[in-house]
Amino acid sequence: MEFGVQFFPDIKPEEKSPADYYRDCLDLAEAAETLGYTHIRTVEHHFHYYGGYSPSPIVFLAAAAQRTKTARLITGAVIPAFNHPLKVAGELAMLDGLSGGRLEVGFARAFLPREFRAFGISPDESIARFKEGLEQIDLLLRGENVTHHGAFHSFDNVTTYPRPTQKPRPKFYVAATMTKETFEYAGQQGHSIMAIPMAADKLRESLDTYRAAYRAAGHPGRGEVMLAFHMFVDADGDRARRIAGPQIEAYFRSIKAASSEWTEGVTSTDYKGYDKMMTHLSEITVDGLIASGSAWVGTPAEVCATIERLQRETGGFEHASIQVSFHLLPTEEARRSMDLFAREVLPKFSAVPLPA
User: Fold this and answer.
1) Number of helical H runs and strand E runs in the chain
2) Distance from the CA of 163 to the CA of which of 149, 180, 208, 296 falls in 20 to 30 A?
3) How far apart are CA 183 and CA 71, in angstroms?
């Protein structure tokens, strides 16, 4: 099992400037590598303070590539619906070269109505655009003189440059939340999966679907799973909860604000049940997140027990992508937490086999 760090901005310009945010995140990314964390990951979002400081994960990871030497650099995730495949393929290969072949590419469908509206795209096209875009980017990274005629983008006899440093291309992840078909699709295609453990029992069912589809398609192994968590540890568990709690609450308020249209009448055939899911977000509490294992907050021993339980409940996951700096958590507190986690949690899991 490996642990990496992810950055998901949920701050307003009046709270922290972009320059200060990027500086602090890159400092933490550089420190994370020296502490034994194995990846750096960031997101793509637009037009809202929830995620809005990261409209291009590729740009941020290109900067992180110059501050690190061995950490994998993961887009978590690029959104094909909002990007032209020819441009994305070239930029991904450029980042792969800048990092010396350390790129891994996560793709997502997006889920915020305001983003689709601003880009002039119907959310009812989300699945079709996602699958077409991923297929086209895959072809462009793997081959030369590529021709593909899709419903949204078409091209003939095109070779994108630069070519990827990793052959035949960097690893692909598919981001999934609650749609069973997305987990199944990722398995069928032989991609890795990145998910959020909001409910361990439902997640176990989704991951079982993914692994079954992966095996049924004849891919070797059992697939690869990355789960995302908030993390803050302290020798004093009460202090950890006291410091991290308000910051996590603010993070979830930002999700609710960004996604409120789902509960105000917006519907989509590609996002069935999102009104109920977003309503559920308003019922989430920090104590509930900690108890369920979605947030790793407490002493190192408490967090170790949570990780062990989640490995059993989910059927095992290969990577934990942990948010170490969320909302307005002071950077020095984030660094102390990262240090303590690296000393007292990482060694206990780095050589532990996953459940069969």
Assistant:
1) 13, 11
2) 149
3) 26
Question: CA-CA distances (angstroms) from residue 81 to 11, 17, 85, 138?
Answer: 25, 28, 9, 15
pLDDT value at residue 351: 62
Q: What phi, psi does 99 have (nearest 5°)? A: -95, 0
The C-alpha atoms of residue 213 and residue 176 are separated, in whole angstroms, by: 15
Check residue 10 and report its DSSP letter.
B
- The pTM assigned to this predicted structure is 0.95
C-alpha radius of gyration, the chain, whole number: 19
Give percent of the chain with pLDDT exceeding 90.
91
* pLDDT tier at 201, thresholds 50, 70, 90: low
Peptide bond into 162 cis (omega under 30): yes
Q: How far is CA 310 from the centre of its chain?
A: 18
Of 195, 196, 251, 200, nearest to 224 by C-alpha is 195
Q: Distance between CA atoms of 295 and 322, rounded to whole angstroms?
A: 9
3-state SS, residue 40: strand
Whole-angstrom Cα distance, residue 219 to residue 103?
Answer: 22
Task: Record the tokens describing residue 318, joined without a space.
Answer: 């290969």
Distance between start and end Cα atoms, the chain? 13
Q: How many other CB atoms sit within 10 Å of the CB of residue 3? A: 23
Please report, as a single letter, which amino acid is at residue 45. H
281-316 per-position pLDDT tens digit:
778 899 999 999 999 999 999 999 999 999 999 999
The pLDDT of 123-145, averaged and rounded, is 98
